[in-house]
Design goal:
Keywords: Aminotransferase, DNA-binding, Pyridoxal phosphate, Transcription, Transcription regulation, Transferase. Pfam families: Aminotran_1_2, GntR. This protein has helices spanning 13-26, 39-46, 50-62, 98-101, 128-138, 156-170, 185-196, 211-219, 262-274, 298-301, 333-344, 349-360, 363-389, 417-426, 456-469; strands at 35-36, 66-69, 73-76, 114-115, 179-182, 202-207, 223-230, 233-234, 243-248, 278-282, 307-312, 324-327, 404-408, 429-430, 432-433, 443-447. By secondary structure, it is α/β, with parallel strands linked by helices. Helix 7 (185-196) packs across helix 11 (333-344) and helix 13 packs parallel to helix 15 (456-469). A hairpin with a 2-residue loop joins strand 7 and strand 8. The strands form four sheets. It has an eight-stranded mixed beta sheet, with helices on both faces. It starts with 12 loop residues before the first helix and ends in a 14-residue tail after the last helix.
Length: 483
C-alpha cells in the first residue's frame, strides 16, 4: 500500500522518515506483516539518497518495529498491535444545522444469541450460490455503458422485471418507464423528500409508525403530523387541512401488522384529491403472506396520479444488497431522476443486472415461496407461545403478512414492558417495545426473520422467563403502560 511521507526542507531527513514510518506503524496505517518498499525505490520516490532511507529502516529494525530478510524485503514486525488511533480533528467550532442535532444517533450493530428484532430477513435462506452465479454472469464487458455512467433510473432490464413482477404479484399499474431503482426503500423516501418537501411542509405519518421515515422527513425540514391508527388503518378523519404529504403502510401497517380496509383506502384517496395532497405507499414486506388475499394497493386504485409506490428487496432478499424501487406518476418522474443523479448518479449495475436475472428466471418467486414456508413455521411457534404462555399479559394483533407480530398488553394487565425488554437483553434475547414506534399502548413487537426454527423455542423460553421476571402478567400491577 502506498504510504505518504512528507519531507519539506533538507535537514534531518532520515529522522523524519523514521518518525513518519514509526507513527504509521503505531496508529495502524502500516499493519503487522506489511511489506515496505525497498530502500532504493523509496529513496527515488522521495528524491533522497538511498543511505538516508537505509538509516531510517535500520533504526526501526533495531527498535523492533521492522524485520528485514535478505532476499525477501523489509516488513512491519509480525504480531505488532497498533497502540494509538488516528482520528480527524474534533472540529469543535463546526456544528450541523439544528434539525440534525435533534435526531437520534444510528443504532449500533450487535449479535444477540436470539434476535427477535424486526425488519430483516434470514440471511441463511438467501440462495447465495445462485446469486454468485448471476453476479458472475453480470460481470461482462457488454454491461458497461459506453459513457461510463448509466441511467439514473436504473438498469432498464431491472426496471422491466420489477414492473412485470409488481404488476403480477401486487396489481401495481406501471411500466418500466414508471420505475426508478433505488438503494433501498429509504433512498426512495429521501428522493421523494428532496422533490416534494420544503422547510415547513406538513407531512402526516402513522402513529404508531416507522421512525426512520419520520426522521428522514424531519431532516428535510418537514413539520410532522402524527395520525392515529385503528383496526382499519390510518384514521382519515384525523387528517387536517394543510397536510401536503401522507406516509402510510396500508398492506401491512408498521408495526401493528393490520391491513388498511378497502373503505379506508378509498376515503384516503378521496381526501388526498380534495386537499391536493400526495400519498407515499410503502409496501415494505407484503411479499410474505400466510393467509388471505391482499387488498388492492392504493396505487392501483389511484386514478389521479397522487400515489408514489415504494418497495424494497431488502426485506425479501438481503439488506446488504441495498435494492429498492419507486413507482411515480409521470408528473414527478423528471424531478426524481434529476434528484437521483445529483445524489449518486446511479446504483450498482452489477447487482441490478443480477436481480433482473433473478426475477426473470423465476428465482425470486421460488425464493419467496420457500422462505414463506419457513417463516410460517416460526410465526406459528410465536403465536402458540404467546397464546399459551403469555395470555395473561399479551394479546396478538391479527396479521397475515410480514416478518413480525405485534403483541400489545392485554386490556386487563398493567405491566412494565421496558423491564421485560431489558431483562431479555441481559439473557441474550433481543426484542423491541411497541412504545418505540409511538402510539399510546404498550407491548412487544416480535420479529421472526433472524431466529431459525431450530432455535426459536429456546429463545421464546428465555423471553418468557424475562417477561415473568418483569412482572408481566394480569396478576401483577408493576408497570406504567396500561392498555
Amino acid at each position: 500500500m502506498p504510504f505518504h511521507i512528507s519531507l519539506d526542507g533538507h535537514t534531518d531527513l532520515a529522522a523524519r522518515i523514521y518518525r513518519q514510518l514509526r507513527d504509521g506503524i503505531l496508529d495502524g496505517r502500516l499493519r503487522a506483516g506489511e511489506r515496505l518498499p525497498p530502500t532504493r525505490d523509496l529513496a527515488r520516490e522521495l528524491d533522497v539518497s538511498r543511505n538516508t532511507v537505509a538509516v531510517a529502516y535500520e533504526r526501526l529494525t533495531a527498535e523492533g518495529f521492522l524485520d528485514s530478510h535478505v532476499g525477501r524485503g523489509t516488513f512491519v514486525s509480525p504480531g505488532f498491535v497498533a497502540r494509538s488511533k488516528r482520528a480527524a480533528p474534533a472540529g469543535t467550532g463546526v456544528r450541523p444545522i439544528a434539525r440534525w442535532s435533534s435526531l437520534p444517533a444510528p443504532p449500533g450493530v450487535d449479535r444477540p444469541a436470539f434476535d427477535f428484532r424486526v425488519g430483516a430477513p434470514d440471511p441463511a435462506l438467501f440462495p447465495l450460490r445462485t446469486w454468485r452465479r448471476l453476479v458472475s454472469q453480470a460481470l461482462r464487458p457488454s454491461l458497461l455503458p459506453p459513457s461510463g455512467y448509466a441511467d439514473p433510473a436504473g438498469l432498464e432490464a431491472l426496471r422491466v422485471a420489477i414492473a412485470r413482477h409488481i404488476g403480477a404479484a401486487r396489481s401495481v399499474r406501471a411500466g418500466a418507464e414508471d420505475v426508478l431503482v433505488t438503494q433501498g426503500a429509504q433512498q426512495a423516501l429521501d428522493l421523494i423528500g428532496r422533490v416534494l418537501i420544503e422547510p415547513g411542509t406538513r407531512v402526516a405519518v402513522e402513529d404508531p409508525g416507522y421512525p426512520p421515515a419520520e426522521r428522514l422527513f424531519t431532516a428535510h425540514g418537514a413539520r410532522i403530523v402524527k395520525v392515529p391508527v385503528d383496526a382499519e388503518g390510518l384514521d382519515v378523519t384525523a387528517l387536517t387541512k394543510g397536510i401536503r404529504l401522507i406516509y402510510t403502510t396500508p398492506s401491512h401497517q408498521f408495526p401493528l401488522g393490520t391491513p388498511m380496509s378497502l373503505a379506508r383506502r378509498t376515503a384516503l384517496l378521496a381526501w388526498a384529491e380534495r386537499n391536493d395532497a400526495v400519498i407515499i405507499e410503502d409496501d415494505y414486506d407484503s411479499e410474505y403472506r400466510f393467509s388471505d388475499r391482499p387488498l388492492e394497493p392504493l396505487q392501483s386504485l389511484d386514478h389521479d396520479g397522487r400515489v408514489l409506490y415504494v418497495g424494497s428487496f431488502s426485506k425479501t432478499l438481503l439488506p446488504l444488497l441495498r435494492l429498492g424501487f419507486l413507482v411515480a406518476p409521470a408528473s414527478l418522474r423528471p424531478a426524481l431522476r434529476q434528484a437521483k443523479q445529483l445524489m449518486d448518479w446511479h446504483g450498482d449495475l452489477v447487482t441490478q443486472s443480477a436481480l433482473a436475472s433473478f426475477i426473470d428466471e423465476g428465482l425470486l418467486a421460488r425464493h419467496v415461496r420457500k422462505a414463506t414456508r419457513e417463516y410460517s413455521v416460526r410465526r406459528d411457534r410465536i403465536l402458540a407461545f404467546v397464546r399459551d404462555e403469555l395470555r395473561d399479559a399479551l394479546e396478538i394483533v391479527p396479521s397475515s403478512a410480514g416478518l413480525h407480530l405485534c403483541a400489545p398488553v392485554s386490556p386487563h394487565a398493567t405491566v412494565t414492558v421496558d423491564n421485560a425488554v431489558t431483562e431479555a437483553g441481559r439473557a441474550g434475547v433481543a426484542v423491541e417495545s411497541l412504545s418505540t414506534y409511538g402510539g399510546t399502548r404498550g407491548g412487544l413487537v416480535i420479529g421472526y426473520g433472524l431466529v431459525g426454527s431450530d432455535r426459536i423455542d429456546e429463545g421464546l423460553a428465555r423471553l418468557g422467563e424475562c417477561v415473568s421476571a418483569a412482572g408481566m402478567s394480569g396478576k401483577v400491577r408493576s408497570g406504567h403502560f396500561p392498555s
